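I am writing to request your help with a piece of structural work I have in hand. A protein sequence and the structure tokens that stand for its backbone fold form the material at issue. Please examine both parts with care and let me know of anything in them that strikes you as inconsistent. The record follows directly beneath this note.
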Amino acid sequence: MKVVNFQSSSGARVGVLDGDFVVDVLAAHQANSVFTPEHAALLGDTVSVIAHWQALRAGFEQAVKNSQHSGAGRMPSQAVRLLAPMVPSSILCSGSNYLSHNAEKANADISGKEPEFFIKTGDCVVGPGADIVLDRILTQKLDGEVELAVVIGKPGRHIPKEKALEHVFGYTIVNDVTARDRQVRKRPDGSFWYELGRGKFFDSSAPLGPCITTADELGNPQDLMVRSWVNGELRQISSTSQMIWSVAQLVHFFSVNVTLRPGMVIITGTPSGTAWSTDAELGGKWSGTDGMVPATGYLKDGDRIVCEIDRIGRLENTVRENR
């Protein structure tokens, strides 16, 4: 199942992407009751749905089936404005999780040895079609990174790797937008160090969407093609099989620090092809393959970024300079 948020006349609503249609689950319920009153009260936001998914799942499935027959709550997706499928409280981020990305950039001391742990929050999130703000006061080197995002569905602390996927509700796409000139700093001896706070955490630095594909529908998270384009040019292409640390290992890793709760998100790193790779001043070393086109500079006003992951979809956003 593909869970979405969409804009309705009364605000954000939870829905299901069903082929070329969006099903308004609450409207489908109102037309032909599929939830108890107590369960219907849990449909107010996606995090609530995720936290109570075991109780709500059968109702979601029935609402979609009913809409296919009666049309209740069923809308062409082209007529619907999708929002971010959720606004997570915490986005736990793993940097340097693809060998190809490590090979194209200046590395921190722990790159490739353990996940580079940093945090974003829901304040960074924008949805499909929303603008990525280019703030020249903050950065002159805005970059994008397509990443698989893991949505936690079951709470846990110190989760064993062999049980980690049991805690996953589903998966979505994130564009880990980065201010490279804030992230990467050069020492007098020519080596580099990172400042991941200002380089990663800022307005619109986490476009998210277009949907959350539930874990049962997506299947193996280590067998997904990952791609990104800027203005139609292929920037990144790889497979999640190339991750250094698997989804299960990352769930275990982050659960050592904090209790994972429903609605938290873990993002899993990006492959090679970022604009950073063409920036020798910041230690970049481009080495693209498979038809990738090297960037001729960082993101600028009007650039269109498309991030795609198999069995999830496409996340599209445009860069707009804040003037």
